[in-house]
Amino acid sequence: MGSIVFTDLDGTLLDNEWKLSRKNYDTLVYLGNRRVVRVVVTGRSLYSARKVLGDDFPIDYLIFSTGAGIMNWEKKELLLARNIPKKTVREYAEILIENKINFMLHREIPESHFFYYYEGNGTPPDFQQRLELYNPFAQPFNYSAHVHLPSTQFLSILPSSKFTVINEFVRSKDLMLSIIKTTSPLLNSSLWLEIYAPEVSKGHATDYLAAILNCKQQDCMVIGNDFNDVDMLDLSASSFVVENAPEELKKRYQTVAANESDGFSEAVNLWLEKI
């Protein structure tokens, strides 16, 4: 029975320019030499993750789309893909459109970087920023053409002032979906409301992979930096957040240096001292 290190990617393992520092690279290689399984856990789609992770990136598994997909990184083999049931896609799209709440509806894995968008009312600036960033893959939402397609997620980009009300409204519909809060990586004043199939989360995915690898949670280390990391942080006895995490999280978990100062390597060293 071995050990696993689960690490968030943006704002945790990578610096603010989406690069892996030499120190964190060396730490990942060292973990591999010690036969510790290395897992990146990210909200990015598979396409987006592969933009910053080269084929030889020193990890063993990639959990992407906030846990909707898992890939064996060495073999580039897809181990898990969870999509929203078609009936639920239609029901949820109707709720959002009726209430003029913006969304981006992402296609099924592995093509979840393609999406269909509805702008709604009061949409924050990073909605347009994201459209520009993924312009080749974005199309306006067409109800009759797109509502019956298999889909990985809905993403609504909301001003932080409106997030709580809309979040509670969505949850009140009780569509048995996984609803996840994330700080916008494009504009810190916005929050993302991410809607996935039931049981999709970073925590569910890390638990699933640990079981496959016959590893107990007490033998795992977890490090993250945002609200969508909470359920995986709560599963491990050795959980860390970087200094650039929200204050609310730093009060709950052991804090190490910021992502710009190799907090990942610091957390690994602290963990290795205990095992």
What is the helical fraction, as a range of percent?
A: 25-40%
User: Could you say what the CATH architecture of the largest domain is?
Assistant: 3-Layer(aba) Sandwich
Q: What is the rounded distance between the termini?
A: 13 Å
Oligomer: single chain
- Rg, rounded, reads 18 Å
DSSP summary: helix tally? 11
Number of strands: 14
Mean pLDDT: 93
Element string (H = helix, E = strand): EHHEHEEEHEEHEHEHEEHEHEHEH
CATH superfamily of the largest domain: HAD superfamily/HAD-like
Unreliably modeled segments: none
Strand order in the sheet with the most strands: 5-4-3-2-1-12-13-14
CATH topology of the largest domain: Rossmann fold
General shape: globular
Please identify the structural class as seen in this structure. Answer: alpha/beta
Query: β content, as a range?
Result: 25-35%
What number of structural domains do the residues give?
2
Protein topology:
Layout: E1 4-8, H1 9-13, H2 22-33, E2 37-41, H3 46-52, E3 61-64, E4 69-72, E5 77-81, H4 86-98, E6 103-107, E7 115-118, H5 125-133, E8 138-140, H6 143-146, E9 151-159, H7 160-172, E10 178-183, E11 190-196, H8 202-212, E12 220-224, H9 230-233, E13 238-242, H10 247-250, E14 254-256, H11 263-272
Parallel strand pairs: 1-2, 1-12, 2-3, 7-8, 12-13, 13-14
Antiparallel strand pairs: 3-4, 4-5, 6-7, 6-9, 9-11, 10-11
